[in-house]
Design goal:
Elements: H1 2-98, H2 101-116, E1 124-128, H3 130-143, H4 145-149, E2 153-156, E3 163-168, E4 174-178, H5 179-202
Helix pairs in contact: 1-5, 2-3
């Protein structure tokens, strides 16, 4: 009886220890698995944060580069416009100054005679500023005596700041030799040249 009891006690101990060992092994395995998952998740999250930080840094660098490039373009454009405006002002002033009484007295008769070949001189008029008309009226009257006799008129028009216009009396057609029109022609040539020069300088 004692032997059987002892065997029973030994069996219970053995089974209990085995069960405890199995349970402990399962818990350790589960804990290790959970720890591995936590580490993997943490690494994945860390990698995502690093990627996001790199992407944000790259985006900010690109935005900064774009902003610098745009600011540079704006500066060059502003400077170019300033240079063009300055050149246009110089061209306008020099063109107006070039239209002195002597030049007007020689140009106007040539322009009128060329137009008179294609049209009746009686239909034509020459427009000048009041100041310029007073300065050249006597010389024009002498140079264009035949055309004036046919009806050509010399008129003061203060809309013409400098230079002159030759055209039909009804205003339907005219040649504009005003200082403003000639300066615009020069400026139209100069502005693309200025732009090209500045583009070349920036490269």
């Amino acid at each position: 009886m004692d032997v059987q009891l002892q065997e029973l006690i030994d069996k219970i101990k053995k089974d209990g220890v085995a069960a405890a060992e199995t349970s402990a092994s399962e818990r350790i395995a589960a804990a290790e698995k959970e720890a591995a998952k936590i580490i993997a998740d943490a690494k994945e999250e860390a990698d995502a944060i690093i990627r996001q930080a790199k992407d944000e840094t790259a985006r900010m660098e690109k935005a900064s580069e774009d902003a610098i490039a745009q600011a540079s373009r704006n500066l060059v454009l502003s400077f170019r416009k300033s240079v063009e405006a300055e050149l246009s002002a110089i061209v306008s002033a020099e063109t107006a100054a070039a239209y002195d009484a002597k030049l007007l007295a020689s140009l106007i008769p040539e322009a009128v005679k060329e137009w008179a070949k294609k049209s009746d001189a009686g239909d034509l008029s020459v427009l000048l500023s009041e100041k310029d008309l007073k300065a050249v009226e006597s010389s024009l009257t002498a140079a264009l005596k035949a055309e004036i006799a046919k009806g050509l008129t010399l008129k003061a028009d203060n809309a013409v700041g400098g230079g002159f216009r030759v055209g039909l009396k009804d205003g339907s057609a005219y040649y504009d030799y005003s200082a403003e029109a000639v300066a615009d022609l020069f400026s139209a040539y100069l502005n693309p040249r200025v732009a090209a020069i500045m583009k070349g300088a920036v490269r």
